Protein 1
Amino acid sequence: MTAPFAWIRPEPHGIHVAPANCWIDPSQPVANALVTHGHADHARGGHGRTIATPETLAIMELRYQTREGGLPAHYGETLRLPGDVSATFVPAGHVLGSAQIVLEHAGERVVVTGDYKRMPDPTCPPFEPVACDVFVTEATFGLPVFCHPPIEQEIAKLLAARERYPERCVLVGAYALGKAQRVIVELRRAGHHDVIWLHGAMERMCRLYEELGVPLGDLRLVTDAKKEELRGAIVICPPSALNDRWSRRLPDPITAMASGWMRVRQRARQRNVELPLVISDHADWGELTATIEEVNPQESWITHGREEALLRWCQLHQRRARALALVGYEDEDD
Amino acid sequence: MERFAALVDGLVYTRSRNGKLELIADYLRTTPDPDRGWALSALTEGLSFPAVKGSTIRNLLMERVDPVLFALSRDFVGDTAETASLLWPKPAGAVMPPPTVSEAVEALSRMTRVSVMSELPRLLDRLDPSGRHALLKLATGAMRVGVSARLAKTAFAQAFGVAVEDVEEYWHALGPPYAELFAWAADGAEPPNTGEMPLFRPFMLAHPLEDAELDLADFVAEWKWDGIRVQLVHAGGETRLYSRTGDDISHSFPEIAEALSIPAVLDGELLVRGAHQGGEAGGAASFNALQQRLGRKTVSKKMLDEYPAFVRLYDVLILEGEDLRELPWTQRRARLEALMPRLPLERFDLSATVEVGSFAELAEIRSGARDESIEGLMLKRRDSPYVAGRRTGLWYKWKRDPLLVDCVLMYAQRGNGKRSSFYSDYTFGCWDGDPDEGADLLPVGKAYFGFTDEELKQIDRYVRNHTVNRFGPVRETDRSLVFEVAFDSVHESKRHKSGLAMRFPRIHRIRWDKPAHEADRIDALRALVRD
Ligand SMILES: [Zn+2]
Ligand SMILES: [Zn+2]
């Protein structure tokens, strides 16, 4: 092959590694898939063979009943794929099991991050920067307005609201995979050891996290609670349940949402959020740009989010970059 | 500034009116002077700092941030001040602690067009994003936190357990930062002396008459005129004409302001004389004629000749130093009648009472009234004092066309076809109780016709300037504009939260002059349900 990086190509339905006949995070069923993490826009069911970390495979099994064809790849382990391609899974710090996939072929190294963040997260190992030729990065929060504060500060806001209104409860909308468990663990670390009440849709994923070695403390289902028990309590639900009928059973809930979007007032107001908590599992603008500088690639490929601004930043810093038009990726409710 | 910033954010995120009232009241109780006074000014009329413009903020950012990144950010965030607060670069080196609100106000008022470029950054450097947002909102005079001046004054009244009408009255005598107002309400000092100032006094208002019949031995009937309710005040050698909202409209009607030279506070209806559009010659013209005179900064001689204004008097509140508001209506009426010969005939007349033998006769007269400028009847308790606001049992309004309600504009949506660039579809609501007691607006209907093209442009501009929130093609407004909505009938409906649905609602008139809290309540609309 003459053109650099011709062996790896962004196609509308994923990133295609031709010599190995496999796809990364494909949005359609394929024969061989490499999956970075369990979020729905990256992991789909129906592939012939799925290579992912054991945690991601467990998550996929829970969500898509994908039992067969899973091939576990442990962090740091290098897999030899056909066509003289090697793949190494490296922690991405995004959610439990999330990995960057480091691909090597013909002396060239490409890192596909999937989603990632650089801030500490007690539910998963931290992002490891890998120097590379092509860095395939997300750009969910790729605008300079996004700057995620330390999580301790946001958790303190949540606990202060609970303290201030002992007659009410705080209802926190949090993405069911990753965000919810991280919020729970951070609450425990901040000394909150009371029961945390869950919406039914959260239960199985929380249980899986515990099985995979992330203790979450005393969790119970809202359906099992008496209304009185919920006064002064913290309740966690998926963001979609924040404004629906379900929340009517709660005692005058304070509507909170844990999401990087909460940095922007309009976004919080659109969802009727009274207590915005800026907590994200994605890199903010500072992390995105600092990481590109750190891994110092010849080229950056930007997958999903606000590509335009990150492209502009690369241009201003004399860095070669291109935006990939992948389908099926969307803003996670994050 | 941090507490003020927390208040601003709290108001942004709190939906319920009660919640907003609590937040403001709590802030006013626990913040020292003069910070709370400046904050209150910012929330009500808005403070004005001519050196700081929207473009100032953009220019400051352009010196610090790549213009493309700024534009992309601005598009996403939807608000320049907020974008700037988020993008402002961290200052190098040590910074001073955040300024207090008064410190910021002082610094802002000293700034010039030139010095603002170096001095505003110095303030911004001392604040966190939320503080910067509050500062920029304060500096540009556009808080847009869904708080009307009335709501802020109601919160003030709640904070210190005083009457909101008293707050309104003293308000106009004082200026920011309202030290005397706080001294009176919070520390029990003497109320501010308002005798020698041409101040606005809150109007006495009427409840709609529902099914009840009233005893005419207790109540007097009077025509209700279709003009603009005004208050004319002469004190300390000055005359002012005030609208329902307490806005000074003297400049639009100089001939009226010139005509009163007796120290007095008079309540009446502003009308235009003439035979325009159905009015009787020499009598009052229709409301449309009056429209020609509204909202003008300067008035041409032609206007004055073609549309001469006069005031049809209803009541007298204060006369030559004597406060008559505690007296029964009959005594005030006698004083008003005695005053009439001393007023120029050309500019003043007396609203006649309607003398009838029975209530049935009154109903007949009401439905037979042909004069375009008659809106209906007023029924006033003969012994009623003049009290601010809407007190039950004293005054009733009995409109000629009962299928009219005053609603508040809540949402506006872009139209179709040639109207697609205008916000032309309106959702409006009525209060679900007393707005001063924390009631909320509930949507009662939608309308997209009934206004002229010129009015459409005006409403469109209003919507754009009063947007608090956007959802795709829909804008949520700050709930400050009143529409008089006409409709064919109203029915119970399970589909609406208000429990009511109107048939063929249309915008009958835009009540630029009417404050939102005086719009009708759901109950008034429910009383019109006929099944
Ligand atoms: Zn993800
Ligand atoms: Zn993603």
Note: The longest helix of chain A spans residues 151-164.
Protein 2
Amino acid sequence: MYDMKALYEAESVEHAIQLRLEHPEAQIIAGGSDVLVQMREGRRAGKELISIYMIDEMRGISIDKDENIRIGSLTSFSHITRDPIIQKYINVLGEAVDQVGSPQIRNIGTIGGNTCNGVTSADSASTLHAWEAIVELTGKNGVRRIPIKDFYIKAGTVDIHAEEGEIQTAILIPKTSYENTYGHYIKYGMRNAMEIASLGCSVNVRLSEDKRTIERARIAYGVAGPVPMRVPSAESVANGSVISESLLDEFALAVLNDINPRNSWRASRDFRLHIAVEMAKRCLAESIKRAGGVI
Amino acid sequence: MSQYKVVHCNINGKDVEKVVDVRASLTDMLRNEYHLTSVKKGCEVGECGACNVLIDGEAFNSCIYLAVWAEGKHIRTLEGLVGPNGELSDIQQAFIDETAIQCGFCTPGFIMTAVEILEANTLYTDDELRKLLSGHLCRCTGYENILRAVKKTMYRRLGKEIDF
Ligand SMILES: Cc1cc2nc3c(=O)[nH]c(=O)nc-3n(C[C@H](O)[C@H](O)[C@H](O)COP(=O)(O)OP(=O)(O)OC[C@H]3O[C@@H](n4cnc5c(N)ncnc54)[C@H](O)[C@@H]3O)c2cc1C
Ligand code: FES
Ligand code: FES
């Protein structure tokens, strides 16, 4: 039995918005794999919850009329990994979320919850940053779409206007972002299953037609700062450069200009800085390979 | 103020309904309302897999799943594997044959994940099987015998020779 004050079950997005406006103190629960654990621990004990878990219209992956990949916020990790659209255009996202917790957690955990919790170690977050995802929020004033980097305000806080009844309804990947683009994610943890990332790194590239030059490289980390972050210094080293072994090293070292990891019980700052360089290099090398390039 | 709701679902092939406290987890509902005590209370925070059941064919830790979300779902627990005269299923027998059980606390959860694995009709590698089983903790047996029980049953169901 959970120590909750009340549970309101939303039947549709409109109903969820209405419930939010009626119960301003209540918190949203999607899959509950963060919320229920925190309720059990006492951190969220005695709260009112608005459940959105039964809103099936918020599940699934499609390509919308503007050719964005549209991922409904309630889509579970395992469904993302198995989805043909994801496998074809942004396979790295499916691979990243396949490293969350365990099979059972990947069946209950949603991508909406993984971003709305504002957690820097979230396994989807660095890849969504590196692919410049757009977050779709729906509230009483309609739909609002913002770049994922603006969605994260600070550790644990994201830009959702609860007072306007907003919930996150989808995550979009624009065509300009996924077209002809290949990526790789590395999660560094102390063990393979049931482990939060000590550091996560996601890189993707688009190569020139002759596959010798990097047209566009993007890199983002989780746990390299209080929120997931892009690394512009490294990107500008790679953009427009001819592929070579030394480029990999230059790119990887440039990450040190931008990242700012902390000491924690999981890993020290120095260790994180050290592995960040190596992870950047390996992720870039693998992304180039997947894009058909040779080093 | 207590809050209750009628939850209709199908459990082990039977359509059922019960009035449930909205604060209940699915573990609470299955154990207290339906006496399905194969569903164990271990960590109750989603880490050990002792409470694992199949919902619409996928494995879920019922301790972090609200009972009210069971509305309209098909739920399967270990009790549903047993035949009409108490016959064990092949995967249960394999756990016995391979000595994949000691205290047995983790076993129902493991077996329900194994059912999902077996029903995929796929020949997984050992590494894939390890990953698929990684949501379960066993404090007695160790994992080798469990892996072997699942692997042997997978080979048998697919009509393949076992390569040990
Ligand atoms: C055993 C275990 C292992 C785990 N391992 C990992 C791991 O390896 N990697 C990892 O990244 N995470 C891990 N997690 C954390 C968790 O599973 C993920 O963060 C998951 O994505 C949360 O999704 P959810 O739907 O369960 O979220 P919930 O718990 O329902 O919600 C999380 C937060 O987001 C808010 N929220 C959710 N959806 C919306 C929405 N649509 N609109 C507005 N607000 C919303 C909620 O109010 C809450 O604050 C683990 C959890 C457990 C229990
Ligand atoms: S009791 Fe549910 S996962 Fe441990
Ligand atoms: S047999 Fe005792 S925990 Fe697995």
Note: The mean pLDDT of chain A is 97.
